[in-house]
Design goal:
The complex is a heterodimer of chains A (266) and B (377).
Chain A (H helix, E strand, L loop, with lengths): L1 H8 L6 E3 L2 E3 L3 E4 L8 H9 L3 E5 L21 E5 L6 H13 L5 E4 L12 H13 L3 E6 L3 H10 L5 E2 L13 H10 L5 E3 L5 H10 L3 E4 L1 H4 L4 H21 L20
Parallel strand pairs in A: 3-4, 3-10, 4-5, 6-7, 7-8, 9-10
Antiparallel strand pairs in A: 1-2
Chain B lengths: L4 H11 L10 H9 L5 H8 L7 H16 L2 E11 L24 H12 L5 E6 L8 H11 L5 E5 L5 H10 L3 E7 L3 H7 L8 H5 L1 H7 L4 E6 L6 H18 L4 E5 L19 H14 L4 E4 L5 H7 L6 E3 L26 H10 L3 E3 L15
Parallel strand pairs in B: 1-2, 1-8, 1-9, 2-3, 3-4, 4-5, 5-6, 6-7, 7-8
The chains are: A alpha/beta (266), B alpha/beta (377).
């Protein structure tokens, strides 16, 4: 952990701090859906990712060749998720299993009670977040972008909030744009856009809007060339972040009246 | 009485009664393909002969939906037959009470040994099967088997005779996390003719079994029609509606589909409906995928190696590997089989085939939380 912290602390000036860890990369990558696990280290390298998420249910303890953890280096921050949990209680139990299995203190809460759309259950998510935050986990809850829920998550000790841009795996982009904008405006925690981002341009847009980071899995894993796509996302996230910092203030969503309406005031 | 799938299916059939003699046109199929959410009428159009010229287009769409939702991965599992005593007389099944086959039931020690032999191949998902005999393989026996096997497997499914809701609840509590139950055919008349005797004769009890499992909290339910018993278009249509009905009423349950075709078996029954061709099987898989983009589709070793490989990109998400359909046989000598297996490749051979075709074989995709401590722990 020391080595990890040291490296992260030395990264670029524009750092993202979550749970006391300073991150130079704002692109989190997922490890599901790849044609071969051996691709994952290359993708992580091309994406320059520092936080990597994996479903604990997919961690295969019996087959070293299939165990995703064997493909992840020690300097990465592991973000196990609670995929498969249908209740707060199940999510809590999976998180504890992840910690006792050596996956660290970070956990992405995923409580899904709808298998058709895979939309998260915000109510159960808040409950699980509260329990795990009290147990010292760094909790990153996956949620439907709802302001009240996000405020509740802040109250109960979440380290960030992870609103979805569109349903998992849909590659539809930022369908919840307006709601995510509100979270970015109102929530004093990092807002990490998770799920739905299908293209680098959409990742760039989320970053321009002021998202602290994005999590991408399907769009990279199912690309014809996942390594090149990983790099494309890295560049897009960096470009979007720079644009946000630069302040794209010149853009106006409404046309400017050619002569100012209040010009007569002199 | 609460309205259940039986009533729903009747109502759907009634609604489309006017189309019984209707000949679907390519335009109906195109219209269906243009829609994001398909309805019962679209389903009929896609399953009709009019869809055949558009099969390639459907296949491309099905492949892209599958990759998006499941990635380039295929989950693997193995079946373990616990017993083959059966009180039913299903005309298409080797375990038919009237067939003179060697009847056997594994002892709990044998169950453990068989489980160890399967686990040694790396498989972590196991499906337990029996014939229908409450005397020889009652719910208590199944539960005892589950408790023996639980430490060695990430996921335990059952494919046994229909149970009551309370029995499913007990099995769920002891570590069962999925139910596979095939309706065989949704045609009540054909159903009656191929199930001449035994408890399985009760069409409605079987039809509503998946709902009882959903209500009991079992997280995964896998449906299927035994393709070839009745008219396959009708059976695939009803299966798809059944799956969607369960998704709507039990959204937290993961609904999946299987596509078993009749295989040669002891008894040699030939159904009236005629064989289901490879093209028909392809059409069914594609329609299931287009109608239910997130439902898993399981392909068993009933199909030949070459066909299994060709079907992979069309929507398949789960395959059995290294399967035996005899009682026991993984660790000891097996007896009579339920049906003949067409794909006899071992687990490493299947895994290697998947890798060579650009798929990651997934051995483990579940956490069995039973017996792993409570929330207070």
């Amino acid at each position: 952990m020391d080595k990890k912290l040291a490296r992260l602390n030395n990264s670029a000036e524009d750092v993202l701090e979550i749970g006391g860890v300073k991150l130079g990369s704002r692109l989190f990558v997922g490890t599901g859906k790849f044609a071969a696990q051996a691709l994952i280290p290359e993708v992580i390298k091309a994406a320059a990712a520092e936080v990597v998420t994996m479903a604990l249910r997919r961690v295969d303890w019996h087959n070293p060749q299939e165990n995703i953890l064997n493909y992840l280096t020690d300097d990465l921050v592991l973000l196990p998720n609670t995929s498969g949990a249908r209740t707060a209680e199940e999510a809590v139990r999976i998180a504890r299993l992840a910690r006792s299995a050596g996956c660290g203190d970070w956990v992405k809460i995923e409580v899904i009670r709808d298998q058709h759309y895979l939309l998260p259950d915000n109510f159960e998510t808040v409950k699980a977040t509260e329990i795990l935050a009290q147990e010292g986990f760094t909790v990153l809850p996956y949620m439907s972008p709802d302001l009240s829920t996000a405020r509740k998550l802040v109250e109960v000790g979440a380290a960030a909030v992870m609103p979805l841009g569109a349903p998992i795996g849909s590659n539809r982009g930022l369908k919840t744009r307006e709601l995510i904008k509100i979270l970015i405006e109102e929530i004093p925690l990092p807002v990490i856009v998770d799920a739905g981002i299908g293209r680098p341009s959409e990742a760039a847009e989320a970053m321009e809007m002021g998202a602290a980071a994005v999590l991408v899995n399907t769009a990279i894993a199912t690309a014809e060339d996942p390594v090149v796509m990983g790099r494309a996302f890295k560049l897009a996230v960096e470009a979007g972040r720079l644009a946000h910092l630069a302040g794209p203030g010149a853009r106006s969503e409404r046309a400017q009246a050619s002569s100012p309406l209040t010009g007569f005031l002199g | 009485m609460v309205s259940m799938f039986y009533d729903f299916l009747l109502a759907q059939r009634q609604q489309l009664k006017a189309y019984e003699e209707y000949t679907f046109q390519e335009s109906d199929v195109r219209q269906a393909l243009a829609r994001e959410q398909l309805d019962a009428f679209d389903l009929k159009a896609l399953l009709s002969p009019a869809a055949l010229p558009l099969l390639e287009e459907m296949a491309e769409r099905a492949r892209s939906l599958t990759v998006r939702n499941f990635g380039r991965t295929i989950s693997l599992f193995a079946p373990l037959y616990l017993a083959n005593y059966c009180t039913n007389r299903c005309l298409y099944c080797s375990f038919n009470h009237n067939n003179e086959i060697e009847r056997r039931k594994l002892s709990l020690e044998e169950v453990e040994l068989e489980g160890q032999a399967i686990a040694a191949t790396g498989l972590a998902h196991l499906l337990l099967l029996t014939g229908e005999s409450r005397r020889h393989s009652g719910p208590d026996y199944i539960q005892a088997c589950v408790e023996r096997l639980r430490p060695s497997f990430a996921s335990l499914g059952i494919e046994i005779y229909p149970l009551a809701e309370e029995e499913y609840r007990q099995l769920y509590e002891s570590g069962v996390d999925s139910l596979t139950l095939f309706q065989e055919t949704y045609d009540e008349n054909v159903y009656a003719s191929v199930h001449p005797a035994g408890p399985k004769r009760d069409y409605r009890w079987r039809l509503e079994t998946p709902e009882r499992a959903c209500r009991a909290g079992i997280p995964g339910v896998n449906l299927g029609a035994l393709l070839g018993l009745g008219d396959w278009r009708e059976d695939a249509w009803a299966t798809a509606l059944h799956a969607r009905y369960l998704q709507k009423h039990y959204p937290d349950v993961e609904i999946a589909l299987s596509i078993p075709r009749l295989r040669p078996h002891v008894g040699g029954f030939q159904p009236q409906a005629g064989p289901v061709t490879d093209a028909a099987l392809v059409q069914i898989i594609l329609v299931y995928r287009l109608y239910l983009p997130r439902a898993g589709i399981t392909l068993s070793t009933r199909e030949s190696p070459s066909l299994r490989e060709a079907l992979l990109p069309l929507g398949i998400t789960k395959m059995s590997a290294g399967s035996l359909t005899s009682v026991g046989g993984y660790a000891s000598e097996g007896g009579s089989t339920q049906f003949e297996i067409a794909d006899e490749r071992s687990v490493p051979e299947i895994a290697a085939m998947l890798r060579s075709r650009g798929y990651q074989p997934v051995f483990c995709d579940w956490i069995n939380l039973k017996g792993k401590g409570s929330v207070a722990g």
